[in-house]
Specification:
GO terms for molecular function: protein serine/threonine kinase activity. The protein has 151 residues and is of the alpha+beta class. It is built from 3 helices and 5 strands, in the order βααββαββ. The protein has one domain: 2-Layer Sandwich (Heat Shock Protein 90), CATH 3.30.565. The termini are far apart.
């Protein structure tokens, strides 16, 4: 089975300590399906830290969205919430974001119309090989048609 190179998964949830193990299992299942097993521990830990921050700073049961994106070269995980306050700058990183920074190649945050998104990404190694088409189309060359006489 060939998977498309651009993959996306999103789940809306309420951030609660009781749901963390279930969320980690769901994310791990998607990463296994995408054949990204080596990244399961780091991605699940990073998302858990971001969800713990939502729980801590927005409140228990706060609504949020977790997304995974994979383009063949990078894997990006993000958590969007309704909290208006952006996290501290890197010089003053607290425990959760310091962990996310250590587990990723890059991370960031941006405000949205309804709150914010915090994301982190990991490089996946070499670029994927070009995908081969499922079916090849034979080359067609024009052949002159014989002339027929009209009688």
């Amino acid at each position: 089975m060939t998977l498309p190179l651009d993959r996306h998964y999103a789940v809306d949830l309420h951030a609660s300590a009781e749901r963390m193990p279930q969320i980690r299992r769901i994310l791990a299942a998607h990463l296994r399906y995408w054949r990204l097993e080596p990244h399961i521990p780091s991605v699940c830990r990073g998302v858990t830290e971001l969800l713990a921050n939502v729980h801590r700073h927005i409140g228990p049961g706060a609504r949020c969205t977790v997304e995974l994106r994979h383009d063949g070269c990078r894997l990006t995980a993000s958590v969007a919430d309704d909290g208006p306050r952006l996290p501290a700058l890197p010089a003053t990183l607290g425990g959760g974001l310091a962990t996310v920074a250590a587990l990723s190649d890059s991370w960031g945050t941006c405000g949205t119309a309804t709150g914010k998104v915090i994301w982190f990404s990991r490089r996946l190694g070499t670029a994927p090989a070009p995908r081969t088409p499922l079916h090849t189309v034979p080359e067609v060359t024009a052949q002159p048609e014989p002339l027929t006489s009209l009688a």
